[in-house]
Amino acid sequence: MSADFPMFALSEEHRAVREAVRDLCDAKVAPFAADVDEHARYPEEAAAALLAADFHAPHVPEEYGGAGADALATVIVIEEVARACASSSLIPAVNKLGSLPVQLAGSEDLKKKYLGALARGEGGFSYCLSEPDAGSDAVGMKTRAVRDGDTYVLNGVKRWITNAGVSEFYTVMAVTDPDKRSKGISAFVVEKGDEGVSFGAPEKKLGIKGSPTREVYLDDVRIPADRMIGAEGTGFETAMRTLDHTRVTIAAQAVGIAQGALDYALGYAAERKQFGTPISDFQGLQFLLADMGMRVEAARQMTYAAAGKSERGDADLTFFGAAAKCFASDVAMEVTTDAVQVLGGYGYTRDYPVERMMRDAKITQIYEGTNQVQRIVIARQLLAGIQSQL
């Protein structure tokens, strides 16, 4: 057996990343999580702390001024931030989602300009794929980009855009040739300051209230042709390649939310007394906690395996990315619901964090592809004979 076989253990460097992010979150993220949720405000304290520690976009390669974190280290950052505050974890997660198309398919000039700006903290990066009438059916988008000399003119509406209005940069998918369906979609970088860019009112959401979700309006937005990401007509392919990688980060967010709920439930069960004894002494509750712990750990291991495949670009990444996102988000919903049950009536109030975690967990089953869509992706991979290259 090879001496460098990892044996599914984190390296010393990855453990150090976890410790550093956890310490930062305990000090500068968790104390504000309830207030961020209560007032549906952007987590400025977390944003500043993550930027100062270079955890706001850890995936950006060193050659563009970033931290150069691999996919697993990025997953650990997102997981640990989500453990404290799901809204805040969308800062590193969406910065990767928005900028990864540039990293995967952009010109060298685009990479230097926009990945460099992201790494320096000059603005976040959002991802504009969905539209009012094009959610799971992204190919049905109506946003148009028309060539005009050395420019493209964009018109359309994008919906459900995470951190819209806060981010400075946007990867926008638009139709350049309506006759070619998915092959007629191209990707562009649009800047917040471009003339004709505006935003709708923040959505009033069940959870992740500290991360603004808004429509992005594109009204005759004229941008240089060199802001196209990759060749014309390759935008949809780039969008799907991006999601293969970033579904792993949503899995990480789900694991973090679930772990935060489990941690709180364990502490509460050890302290809460009924019938003269801690409720953690009751076998029925122990079984509930045991199931929660097993599910969280299974989701974590699947997520880390998927992160390794993302880093290597393995042939079975599509299967693992979809499977990790689907499984971990279902686990997050189950575990946070169980955590509310452990706390009983207290768990149902805003005085305790588990009801927030339960509300936050729900979105992980929906965005970056609903779990029904993930199951379609998974089944297609299985039927094609692509499952695991471990």
Give a structural overview.
The chain is of the alpha+beta class and 390 residues long. Helices cover 51% and strands 14% of the residues. A four-stranded mixed sheet has the order 1-4-5-8. The protein has a four-stranded antiparallel sheet with strand order 2-3-7-6, with no helix packed on it. Helix 9 packs antiparallel against helix 11. 50% of the residues are buried.
Radius of gyration: 21 Å
| Overall spatial form | globular
Largest sheet: 4 strands, mixed
Count of helical regions: 11
* Residue-averaged pLDDT: 96
Helix content estimate: 40-55%
Strand content: 5-15%
Q: Quick one: how many beta strands?
A: 10
The stretches of 5 or more residues where confidence is low (pLDDT under 50) are: 1-5
- Largest sheet: spatial strand order: 1-4-5-8
Helix/strand order: HHHHHHEEEEEEEEHEEHHHH
Query: How far from one another are the termini?
Result: 15 Å
Structural class: alpha+beta
